Each structure stands twice: as C-alpha cells, then as structure tokens.
Description:
The complex is a heterotrimer of chains A (96), B (306) and C (388).
Chain A: E1 16-17, E2 34-38, H1 48-52, E3 58-60, E4 66-68, H2 78-82, E5 88-92
Antiparallel strand pairs in A: 2-5, 3-4
Chain B: H1 28-40, E1 44-48, H2 52-57, E2 69-70, H3 77-93, E3 102-108, H4 109-114, H5 117-126, E4 130-136, E5 162-163, E6 166-167, H6 176-181, E7 187-191, H7 196-208, E8 213-218, H8 222-225, H9 232-241, E9 248-251, E10 254-257, H10 267-272, H11 282-299
Parallel strand pairs in B: 1-2, 1-3, 3-4, 4-8, 7-8
Antiparallel strand pairs in B: 5-6, 7-9, 9-10
Helix pairs in contact in B: 1-7, 3-5
Chain C: E1 2-7, H1 8-18, E2 23-26, H2 33-44, E3 51-54, H3 58-70, E4 75-79, H4 81-86, H5 88-96, E5 102-107, H6 121-124, E6 132-136, H7 139-156, E7 160-165, E8 173-178, H8 181-187, E9 204-205, H9 214-243, E10 250-253, E11 260-264, H10 268-281, E12 286-291, E13 293-295, H11 299-305, E14 311-316, H12 327-336, E15 344-349, H13 359-375, E16 382-383
Parallel strand pairs in C: 2-3, 2-4, 4-5, 5-7, 6-7, 11-12, 11-14, 14-15, 15-16
Antiparallel strand pairs in C: 1-8, 6-13, 10-12
Amino acid sequence: MSKKLKGWKEIPMGVMITEPGNSVEFDVRSWRTYKPIIDQIKCTKCGMCWIYCPEAAIMIKEDGKYEVDLSFCKGCGICEKTCAPKAIMMVKEEAV
Amino acid sequence: MSTVFRTIKDVPKEEYFAPGHRLCAGCTAATAIRQILKAAGRDVVVVTATGCVEVATSYFPQTAWRVPWVHVAFENSAAVASGIEVAMKALNRKKKSDEKIHAIALGGDGGTFDIGLQALSGALERGHDFLYICYDNEAYMNTGIQRSSATPYCAATTTCPPGRLSAGKMTQKKDLVAIAVAHEIPYAATACPSYPFDLMNKVRRALDVEGPALIHILTPCPTGWRFDINEGIDVGKLAVMTGLWPLYEVVNGVTKLTVQVPRREPVKKYLKGQGRFKHVGEDVMKRIQERADLLAAKFGLGPVRQ
Amino acid sequence: MKRLGLSGNYAVAYAVKMADVDVIAAYPITPQTTIVEKLADFVANGELNAEYVNVESEHSAMSACVGASLTGARVFTATSSQGLAYMHEVLFIASVLRTPIVMANVNRALSAPLNIWNDHSDAMAERDSGWIQLWASSAQEAFDTTIEAFKIAEDIQLPVMVNIDGYIVSHTYEPVTLPDQEEISGYIPSKPMTNRVSPRLAYSSGVVGPPEYYYEMKYQAVDAMERSRQRIKEIESDFNQRFGKDYKDINTYHMDDAEYALLIMGSMTGTARVVAESLRRKGEKVGVVSIRCFRPFPFERLAEIFKGVRCVGVVDRAVMPGGPSNPLFVDVASALYGMAERPVLQSFVAGLGGRDVPTDEFELMFNKTKEGARTGRAGPCVYVGLRE
C-alpha cells in the first residue's frame, strides 16, 4: 500500500513541514515486542510513568486514570521499570 | 514569577513534542525533550543541531515538533539562535512584530562540545537572551557511536575502541558548565531526565533569566551505552547517585547543589550495567571511583555506601 | 538627492542604511571591513535602527543571517575570500531554505598563498551555491546594485550576492548620487515578511529530505533561480525608470558591428573599454561585453549579442585547475553551444591576486582575439602577464 508522493509544486517552499506534530501519522507499533498493561487498582496516579515516557504514549484521562495509548508505544518498558507500586506489567504482543 | 514544578499536578498536560518520532525505543533524550517543552511552553523556537534528535524528529514529511523548529547545520545552532534572538528584538523595537519568542538552541554533545563550541562561545560572550541546551549521550550516537570530547574516561566507542593497545577513550570528559560559566553568564546548570522536577525547574529558571543560560543534560542512550531499553531512567539515576553526574546550578557564578546524594552508590554498579565499559578492569574502576570521590568532595555529596 | 564622495564599500554601507535593514551580522575581513565598520557607526549613532551582531566567524555570520531571515527580518552581511569560503556550507542552505539575505562580497583572491587583493576566485567558487550573483564596477553601481538586491531577494525569495572588486572598487572614492530616503523607502518598503518561526504557525524548517523528497525540494530552488531570469529583468527595468539609470544584465560597448570582442567581468571592464576606444579610432571593429548578472547566467542574451561576432576573448580573473578551461569561459562556452554559428572563443587569465592589468596587456588580448577572428581558430589559454 504505497501513498502517492507529492511533487515539487505541492510541497511547502523552503524545506518546511507546515503541519506541527504530524509525526503522529508515523506507525511505531511494529517496533514493540512487549506492551504495557496498567493495573488500575495498584496505580497510585503518581504520574511518573507519564513524565518518563519517551513517546508521550501514556495519557491522563478525564477521570484522572493513566492509560497507555498503544498507537504510540514502542514497548521500551521504562514505565514498568520506574513504576514504584509495580502497577505496570510488560506483556508480550500477540503474534500477528 | 515562574512556575515551580513540585508535584505532577504542576506539570502542564500539553505535549509540545509529539509521538511518532523515530528516536530509539527507550531514548532518554526524548523524555528530556518532553520535559523541557513542558517547562518552556508554546512561545519558543527550538534551533536544533544535526544529530539524533534533529534527524529522528524531522524526517520529511513528518515532524514531531508542535513548536516552531529550525535546523540549519551541525555546528551553528547557537549562531542561528543568536540571529533569531536579535531579529525578534529588532522587529519588536521597530514595531514590525509583537511576538515574544524565546530562542532555545538544542545540540547534542557532538554539536556542542566539539564542532559547536565556537558558535556557543560566541553566543554566550555576546550575551544573547537565549537558552542553550546540550543533550549529552556521550558520543556521536546518530552516526553510530563515535567518540566526542564528552565521552567519559575509558568508555568504548567505534573511534576509540578498546583493543590490545587501548582501553577506550583515554582522556577525561570536558567540563561544559565550567566553560560556559567562564563566559560570566547568569545561569548554568546540569540536569537529567531521571529527575524531572529538577530539570523542569532549571529550564524555567534559565528562560526567566535575562541573558544567556546553559543547561547540560545527561541523556543515557541504550543503543550506545549498551544497556536494556527499559533501563535509561535508572542508569541516569545511578549516574547521579554515584556522584559522577552531580546535579547543580551556577547562578551568577555561585554554585549550588540541587539534588543531594546522602549515600553514594559505588561507581562499579554504574559501570557494570553498561556494555561500553565491559572491558574495564579493577584499576580503571578505581580511577573512576577516585574521580567520583573528587566530584563528591567538590559538591558536598555524601560518602559511598559500603 | 545628495552627492557624496564615497568609496565602493561606503556606498554599500549607505545603501544598507537606506534599506533600513533589521539585522547585520558583522565579521571583519580585508577588504570588506570598512563596510561593517561604517555600519557600526550608523548603528551606534542611531542613524540605522538595526541589531548589529559581532559574530565570531563568517560561518556564524551567515548562520545568524539565516536564523534572522527566517523571522521575516531584513538581513545583511559582508565578506570576502576566505570568509566566503568559510561560510560555504551555509550558502547552499540559505538558498534552498529561501532566505532573502543580501550579502556584499568584496572580491579577493582565495588562499593559498595568502593574498588580500582582488580577483574573482572567491565568488567563482560559490557559483553552484544557488545564490543570485550581481557584479558592480563602480561606487555608484555598488550603491544602486545593493538597493536592487533587496528588491530582487525579497521578490524571488533567494539570497543575493553583490560583488565588487577588492580595493579597486571597494576603496576607490568616487562621486555617488544618493536618492532621497523617501524614494528608497517607497521602492523597498520595510514591511514585515512571514515569520517562519512564529509560534502561531509552529512550522519546522530545515527538515530532513530523504531520497524520495530531496530532488523535489532542491528543484524548488532551481526553479526559483530560473524564474528569477525574467523577474530580474523586470525589476531592473523598473529600477532604471524610477532612478534614471541604464543597468542591464549584460553591458555592451561598441558591439553593434563588432567583429571581435573581449568578454570580461568586474572593474577590468573600464580598462578594456579605454583600449577598445583607441582601437576603434584606428578603424578596428572591436567591442567589449561585461556581465553584470552572473547568476542566473544570461545565456540567451549573450548568444544574441555574439551573433555575427567572429571571435570572443574571454577574460577570467580566476582559474579552474584541471577544468576544460576557466570558470567564466566554461559558462560562456556552454551558453553559446546551441548557436547555429558560434564565435571562436579564446581563453585568457589575467589579474590573479590583484595583479594589475595595464592597457598594453589588454592590447595583447585584443590582438590575440583578432587573430582568432582571422584564422577561425583559438589557441590554448593565454596566462597574460605570467612570468616564466
């Protein structure tokens, strides 16, 4: 599935990308072997997983719950390693 | 008065550094940048030198930046930031623009310690109101782990490999903060993303100060330092806990420790956890421990835990 | 309107002042230094409202200019020789990033050996950089071309280099007529341009261009340079009308019925014309052509001018070791290649490292060119004035 690439008349002038943060379109899910699961009972909502995540893959929901956005997680496991109450567990991704 | 980041509630939720960048899984530089931008906010322009961060975040047609961002070349992020700073000053004064944009120059250790040192020195001496941040993964990581003058003593890289005749890099790491402070700038500091509140407060303080500021951030690299991808934050903590990476700030020439270490970890624990030091023997470890002891004495850190 | 005795360098400085630039990056190098010194005076006395940055090298001068230009500010710097070479990598970047920087390059020989005097090797080494290159041969022309440069740069969004010969033009005092400030301000109003580093836009500039995109991104700058051919003609024509001038991309002297001619760039043109004049009085059908706009290279008009001319002597003030010939010759030969009937081209090198080229050496060049017209053949490159 290839996308049609833009021509010189269509791309912005001056070596620019004019859509801030459009890297969200880039699929990094295939990078991971393991994915994090958060045990909401053990979670103390300290927020350290969120502040340590290199990908901004952990979200803080409206109700204050911390959840993983699996579209952005590369499976590094920093969240599991740094979670003080051990509320996060890295589990193997299902085979495709 | 600037925000003081004490708890997680003080940290803004906005993500000015978007996911989907191509930095390695477990890259602590990515963590550092998220934290930096949370402290800096929207009204900045980040001028990045060629390197890991630049290449992995601006691969056309995708950008991870949600703030204005510029890349020109490898050695000139401080010069480009200088140009932006004075231009905004002129445009504001001549009433051609009412925008207030903080210029932040961001370079790796390669683009700062080595090829970028001239431009950095010039910008610091001229007194531009800007912030220079060096994210230090202690080698030219983007090009495959070559040695820089920030590579620590006896670390292995591809251009200072250990072998029959060599034990890795035979010289000590340059002291960037001391070089910056020699320019009599109002603010300089060290930081590490393993200590997010300390880092974010320093970014805030650096931006609030009038004139040049420099923050030197240690960003452990799993790929180049050879540890597991989930260990980056812990390795950073160990760097601080051994005394090898003291967290301090220098305000108008006066040094102040910002994170105390009452009981230091032995450097052996730090070195054994990284493949780049696996060739290192007892005598080298002893020398590195002595260096940690020297730094501990200088900054008033505690003794090594037995 | 004001009439002042100004050196070529000071004329450039006055033009930059009247253009009301916002940022000047300054680093000294002989023989450009008096430009940035004069500008320093203007800024220090409040005559020019600009930020003046004493950068620590020319590489940083151009880097600071690129950064400043991205904010939409009007930006200037000056350099020569080694300084131009030092900023080499940033020149290419400035062009493709489409920053309308104006830079005065006071032509000086490239080392080695160290030489502070005039030749064209510095500008020639940057012909591929994607900068528009204009050449001015008098103090008045230096003033006028610098003003035009801001107009051209900001219209096409490409950086412009204004070349003036070191010492010969830069340091020679001539009468220069300056229009009133209102006329200049009306011509190049100092209005805000798009701020590409505005937080309102949050653009990323200078991104990575992988193989799937580099070609297209580079081509945009190539296309801009191509479009500039027509635009520069239009802008120049408008400038001439407004200020009562007669500037063209190529200046011709006695070319209507010339059988042979010299093609030259820079201030040596003056001597060539004096010698041509005396030859004309002897009945020789001789002419002089000088190129004022070197990039984009005006190949179409050059071919028209040389229709019916039997031999053209191309005078290079730079060498291209190992090349088919020297820089200007190579461009001219390519330009004329498509002509049904091409003139013979004779290559000359003169004036390297500030070596004076007196009238008798020009006579030598004209005679050799006449021989080419007569025999229909050119000889090998003549290194005029070289001692064995």
